[in-house]
Fold each of these.
Amino acid sequence: MTTDDELTIESRLAEQEYFEPPTEFVGQANMTDPGVYDRFDEFPEGFEEYAAMLDWDEHWDEVLDDSNPPFYEWFVGGKLNASHNCIDRHLDERKNQTALLWEGEDGEQRNVSYQDLYREVNEMAAALRSAGVGEDDIVTIHLPMVPALPITMLACARIGAPHSVVFAGFSASALAERVDDADSDHVVTIDGYYRRGDFLEHIEKADEAMDEVDSDPDVLAWTRHNEPQVEVSDDYTLVSELLADHRGERVAPVSRDAEDPLFLMYTSGTTGQPKGCQHRTGGYLAYATGTAKYDEDIKPSDTYWCSADIGWITGHSYIVYGPLSLGTTSVMYEGTPDYPHRGRTWEIAEKYDVDIFHTSPTAVRQFMKWGEEELEGYDFDFRHMTTVGEPIQPEAWLWYYKHVGDESAVIVDTWWQTENGGHMITNLPAIQDMKPGSAGHPAPGIEPAILDDAGEEIAPESGEAGNLAITRPWPGMLQTVHGDDERFIDEYWERFSDTDSDDSADWIYEAGDAAVQGTDGYYRILGRLDDVMNVAGHRLGTMELESAIAEVEDVAEAAVAARDDAEKGEVPDVYVTVREGVEETEELRERIVESVEEGIGKFARPSNVLFVDELPKTRSGKIMRRLLEDISNDEELGNTSTLADPSVPETIRDQLQAD
Ligand code: WTA
């Protein structure tokens, strides 16, 4: 093709507002009936369609008990086990089919069939029990992208022990904080794993965390190879040794109440303390399974690859629970997409003949920056592609559509949150046309609204931006914030609900995002409205960063502002005032960065550390981060009239320009 032709295609695509799904896609899709929306609008019974996709030990008596909002109960009276649903029930038909297709960064490969998964999960369940894990004990799992992670999760689910997976990139302190909050008596880790060719000594984080925790948990350590590659403390139990005692053992799946918790997933909020979002067994699994089937179009015969990390909610719902519950083959990759070369993603896609590919806008922007040349020579053919985690810019969407999807794959942009369990706003790919930059329509049964700051609903399809809210419950929603019902209400319900009311119609979930619904009914998500930032699709609380920085000795005060970044979406800028007599040195900057790495993790590293004389504060002493954000983004300053000293932002600007 000549360059001119290329240009014509680019400009044709750029002008096109909607993209129809290819006929071949529609012809084979799991959900093609527009009537699905009406069925789910039979509220709450519509959601039984998802629950019916699962195997239940006992059928539920009631779909939804909403008598005590916002403590909703789903599929009340039902009993089931998540590991049975993800493994045992598939054995008759597909025990030899690959469940997990794992590729190590070093090129090692493992095909874990459903039969293998059954064996390994049973043995691990027996091992956990023998290590003293009982039903309802929360197990903290700090593992990278290796098969041990889903195996441990499913083993916990099998014995009714909720898991709390902490993303491997979190630091020792972040791990310790989550172990304490969950009151975990067991922590599962691994000696190490590969990252850009190096063997990372992951177990060090557990070592340090054990010095910091309030209690004295038992540590179980997997090994990346047969033998430990680094020193493992004598206080720890090697999982390999434990498993050796339980070879061939079978553990009957514990029949759990639908409302029994399946897992905790900590996420950032507007305070320094992360929240343990607690997810129920029945409603969560039904919602993850149903949305994976309808939105992701997953079939058992597919090879499905979600390149997220299982340490975040996307990996829980759309690498482990949703895909395995549907009996498909789910790909897991240990490493980074640019190791040992920038074509690694496409090499894997070709090698395993991936049908469905799921990634983040940050990854798409990165691929785009590397250039389409990196895809040349790789022969793969995606039918369906997903993005999640951040808004995707139309240019990035178009690039993904053209160069990765070859204009023949559908794309779904899925908006949802850790708290939601599964997709909330996304198109059903065979039913609606795609629109670059828009997440699209509410998922079946989901009822969003856009509210103004006073809580009044903005007219639907008005094109006017406001606060995104959800006006009725759904099965994937979190049950509560672990151990803190009050915080659950404060964080999500207080603002827009009549909290004195027992009528669930008066309870409205606040998402914390801004959104706009166009005249065509499509929702576009604009980003967070609260003090949560989105760095490369990772959710970070500005308060968490600030409390990590406050620990640095010479820092008087710190405020974090989100700066827009072409690749990562947002990056943290840190504004710091130092104590009297302290010099603003490079060394202090480094200590500040280190403190964030130690308090949270390397992925939260500040992009800039800016020394200033004063921070902009209101008369009551509240730091106005929004003004700092204006400064970071070189935008016109917002309203400064509530500042104690309205000249501060301009002084900061002058100061930064002078530096
Ligand atoms: C953002 C990730 C725009 C949003 C599943 C939300 C998105 C936060 C999208 C939740 C999307 C997620 N378009 N923004 N498709 N998906 N977000 O809890 O700000 O890690 O509130 O869950 O990510 O992040 P979390």
Amino acid sequence: NGHENAYENILVETRERVGIITLNRPRALNALDAATLREVVSASTALDADPGIGAIVLTGSEKAFAAGADIKEMAGRSAPEMYLADWFAGWDAFTRVRTPVVAAVSGYALGGGCELAMMCDLLIAADTARFGQPEINLGVIPGMGGSQRLARAVGKAKAMDMVLTGRHIDAVEAERAGLVSRVVPAADLLQEALDVAGTIAAKSLPSVLAAKEAVDTAFETTLAQGVHLERRLFHALFATEDQKEGMAAFTQKREPRFTHR
Ligand code: CO8
């Protein structure tokens, strides 16, 4: 189906309606350099445009989801160079993917790795996962949205703790703090993520996209505006055959057969 293109730093495959992107730069613990950014954006955008894909899984290796932005690539650059290149702005395209993305995190998710995981819609962690924003140890701060998304995900107290000290947290602490939705044994991580993605991909796609848009809006606007948008999206879904089918199936006590999936 055309998604298994020759990328250098990622692997892409599809299983039924689920696309899988695997960060694959083992010699640098999946550090996110500019080439990897381009490939993740290209692969996720292509999967997003494919109506045969209903959910995407983003994962790394057992040892590292990603150990950060590529420090060696940035180390020698000047402020004007960083500013003129608008370093990291390319990741914004990844956050515009409308198809739900499930991050499956094993091992290190540090710096840009933690930030990339937080750009996904749902985080599932292996019990080996370690999350951190260690940029403070490099004389900088998070640059891929970490200070903002971590504060929204875990609140000010723990975000300040992590961003100011560079301390890593383990999977248990990450789940307790609300950063991840589930923790599973490392050996079960990919299967769990594929099950979650498969469950989402089996729903009616318009309702899935609307649901993601509605929840994302909660982090961008006031309560009244968010509730208003939700209600309008809810009304609009009554224009789909799948709303008729879903509600008919409920009253007839059978499984729905959705058309838009
Ligand atoms: N960038 C580039 N290369 C990396 C990175 C990285 N973020 N992380 C690991 N690598 C490389 C190592 O340099 C090493 O390469 P080599 O074999 O050529 O020396 C290889 O991956 C394996 O790593 P280690 O030998 O260090 O493996 P360990 O198991 O001993 O340690 C750690 C694993 C603890 C994850 C360790 O690699 C580490 O601390 N990595 C860096 C973590 C970090 O600080 N991440 C934040 C990066 S900064 C960021 O994401 C936001 C932008 C901030 C701007 C910074 C500007 C300078």
